[in-house]
Design brief:
This protein has about 450 residues and is an alpha/beta fold. It has 13 helices and 16 strands. The strands form five sheets. A seven-stranded mixed beta sheet has the order 1-10-9-8-6-2-3, sandwiched between helices.
């Protein structure tokens, strides 16, 4: 499979030119052994290496290969993770001051984008799966109802898949959004691998961002923006607004190489990983697919009685999960997890079986009262000193109060911190002594 960007970088480095340009290491081995080999292809914008934010090779072909693979008209490489994709995508879809229908379960980067782009958000609440104490998929019916009630909304923003692997029906939602003359933006940060499993999780969306680094063999911060119906030059311009003017060429090349590997070997390896996850779901109490509930085949969500306690036992045995909450431990499983890795995990889980099962029910997160817009809260005067969260009842948050991971705000900037939010945060084990900033009233 072709790797046009990586080939261009290797070709330039192979000529051993005199580098009187950035970066400062000039292609010589870096003083850190683990990074030494990267220096040769850590380059800058030159005629042979191209410019991420301009038309031309090798980027045109490298990005075209990804776009074809995902079934979109175009693709833009990103070196700022899906956060950069969220900011770029929403800037393309909505103008300052416009209303946006936003999945309340979105990542905190969406909330930051609302403030930076001066967008007015209307929340789209997710159904709460009481038996699982987890949020479910976005209902197409709920989207339609909101758009009928608010006909001036022309942008919808949702997350799919969620941290727990819940997939919403993007095809059905997109048809509804388009029927109302709108555009659908999907934060698919955790779903870069899904097309390689034969799924079409983003079909119908207008803009999608995925984090290659989360589930594919790519370097940290490697992400992709897929889009239909937007002029390429405009997309490049908006991406350059939110990204560095010196993007990392090793990160960019890693996306080229990740695609090549996935097409040649990785898709099969992902099928193997999905089969192993299916086996783990059968053997241990876990979050599983059921009628009306589609899940990422490679996201393993274990049900436990005490999330932090279970995670501690895992770490004592050299196993580190992605995240935990009061009653779940989330494992990101990928094509890079060998059968030996899965065997080791299964062995340890058998040892800890008595710690698995249902945790005390967790209620759905509350929706706080909004007092200020996200932008007003971001730039509002704040109290001189931050204070412990437990002492902030009745005040207006000037920051996000979000357990991380998953980074979904319980209280967003501009929202009032009431007794119900404090009770919820305490119930899920949030540190009530953490110091936060609140808006200076009066």
């Amino acid at each position: 499979m072709p790797t046009p960007l990586y080939d261009a970088l290797r070709s330039y480095a192979g000529k051993d030119p005199l580098r009187f340009h950035m970066p400062g290491h000039k292609g010589k081995p870096l003083p850190v052994p683990e990074l030494a080999g990267l220096a040769a292809i850590d380059l800058t914008e030159l005629a042979p290496t191209g410019n991420l934010y301009e038309a031309g090779e090798p980027f045109d072909q490298a990005q075209r290969l990804w776009a074809d693979l995902f079934g979109f008209e175009n693709c833009q490489f990103l070196t700022g993770g899906s956060t950069m994709g969220i900011h770029t995508g929403l800037a393309l879809c909505a103008r300052p001051g416009e209303k946006v229908l936003v999945d309340r379960g979105c990542h905190r980067a969406v909330f930051n984008a609302l403030a930076l782009l001066d967008l007015e958000s209307l929340w789209l609440e997710r159904p709460w799966l009481r038996e699982e104490s987890l949020p479910g998929p976005i209902s197409p019916g709920d989207v339609e109802k909101m758009l009928e009630e608010q006909p001036d909304i022309k942008t919808v923003c949702i997350t799919s898949p969620t941290y727990a692997g819940v997939l919403s029906n993007i095809g059905a939602i997109s048809r509804i959004v388009h029927a109302h003359g709108g555009k659908l933006f999907v934060d698919g940060a955790h779903g870069a691998h899904l097309p390689f499993l034969g799924l079409a999780p983003f079909w119908g969306a207008d803009v999608v961002t995925v984090s290659a680094h989360k589930t594919l063999p790519a370097m940290g911060q490697a992400a992709l923006l897929f889009f239909d119906g937007f002029e390429l030059g405009r997309v490049r311009q908006m991406a350059s607004v939110f990204g560095t003017s010196s993007p990392s060429y090793p990160i960019l090349a890693s996306m080229d190489l990740a695609r090549q590997w996935m097409e040649e070997v990785g898709a099969w390896e992902y099928q193997r990983a999905a089969l192993r996850v299916a086996g783990l779901r059968q053997k241990f109490p876990s979050f599983c697919p059921k009628p009306g509930l589609s899940l990422d085949p490679c996201r393993f969500v274990l049900r436990v009685k005490d999330g932090p306690g279970f995670t501690k036992r895992l770490e004592e045995r050299g196993i580190f999960a992605e995240m935990e909450d009061g009653g779940h431990v989330v494992f990101i499983c990928t094509a890079q997890d060998s059968d030996r890795d899965f065997d080791c995990l299964e062995k340890v889980l058998k040892e800890l079986r008595n710690m698995m099962g249902d945790c005390p029910p967790i209620p759905a997160p509350p929706i706080p009262e909004r007092v200020l817009s996200p932008r007003q809260a971001l730039f509002a005067p704040v109290r001189e000193w931050p204070r412990p969260l437990k002492d902030c009842e009745g005040e207006i948050a000037a920051c996000q109060i979000a357990p991380y991971p998953p980074g979904v705000p319980v209280v967003a900037p501009g929202e009032r911190i009431s007794k119900k939010e404090l009770a919820y945060l305490q119930k899920i084990g949030y540190n009530m002594l953490s110091e936060i900033r609140t808006v200076l009233s009066g």
